[in-house]
Amino acid sequence: MGMVKRFNSHDLSNVKPQLPPVEVHIEEAPVYFIGPATTDNPMSHVRTRLMGHVLFNDRKLKWNRITLQFSGKAGLDIQAPVAALPRELAGDEAGSNSKATMRLDSTMSVCKIEKELIFTGEKIIEFGLHLPTTLPASTRTKHAYVEYTLVANFSGGMFFKKYRIQHSVTLCRHYLPSPSAMIPCIEYNNAREWFEWSAEVPKAVAIESGEIVIALRWSVEKELVEVDRVDLALEEIETYRFSTKSGIHNLPPMISRFPPTPYHPPTYSGNSETHFIRTPIPVSTPVHRVSRPVRTHIFNPFLDISHRLRLVIHFTTSPSLQPEPLILEYPIIVTDYPADQPSVSPMVGGDEAVCVDFDLPEYTPQYSIEDTTLNDQHNNG
């Protein structure tokens, strides 16, 4: 009479879970780039790599070929007003209906990098993929995205076993390598009849600083008018773009203005006095949540998110003069610091500051277009 072996819960708890024959692990931290994505960038000499390792659990399997494929893809999906489209795309719809829209649906390849690993029977193989300095950051908005993936293909064994592993990779781009970076300022000077002003505006600001500060000086004919208050607000400009045979076209920008911060000058202030005008940077924290946080600077094949400061100078009125407010706009790069990445933050000795060149042109790399489709789906809404 045969015996039937019974398993109790204690026996099942000792059963080890079945491990996959092979695993691919990449560093959890994002891949960081510093500065504009151009070869003229002084930080482009820092060769950025995607680091990871392959773990072989089944030592009996002999892999013949191991291939790593790193690829990036950008996409656009938006209902665009027909009136803003070129005639070659809008066709007969152009000018017929001011409310008509057309769906722009496009994808393109940003990069494709391959590397082959040689299997020598080791338990672990470490790897590092060198990435081009012209890659845009990972992005996902309502209408556009940039995403990166790493695919590992394995083939081998007596019965030609195949295995595929895929991981998502996050790329970040920053304009400041560390808090020790020296941020240059631009001085703007101008005059309007009885009013003269000078503003020093930083070229960039890190969201970690919590606020934006500009230095403002003015001179006014006080027998006519005086400065009543100054309002400073941050604006975010979201611009979607697409490409046709005739070139690159921009859709009308979407402008978001954050609440302005008023500044009231002292009652007795001279013409030579410097006024520091401040406005907070709206960022969500675990303690303080904001409904609309600011986003950092983004530039990719289909989307450009930039920022500017809107300075409004209000004047007191007099019987002889009732001036309109003076509105000034200045560009600024909103960025952040890499999260504890010594590989991209230059080692600085003592109190020496890191100089960052913001005079570089915005990058327009020659992306390799593999499959670009524009589906013209009319929606007269």
UniProtKB/TrEMBL annotation:
**Which InterPro entries does the record cross-reference, listed alphabetically?**
Arrestin-like_C (IPR014752)
Name this polypeptide is given: Arrestin-like N-terminal domain-containing protein
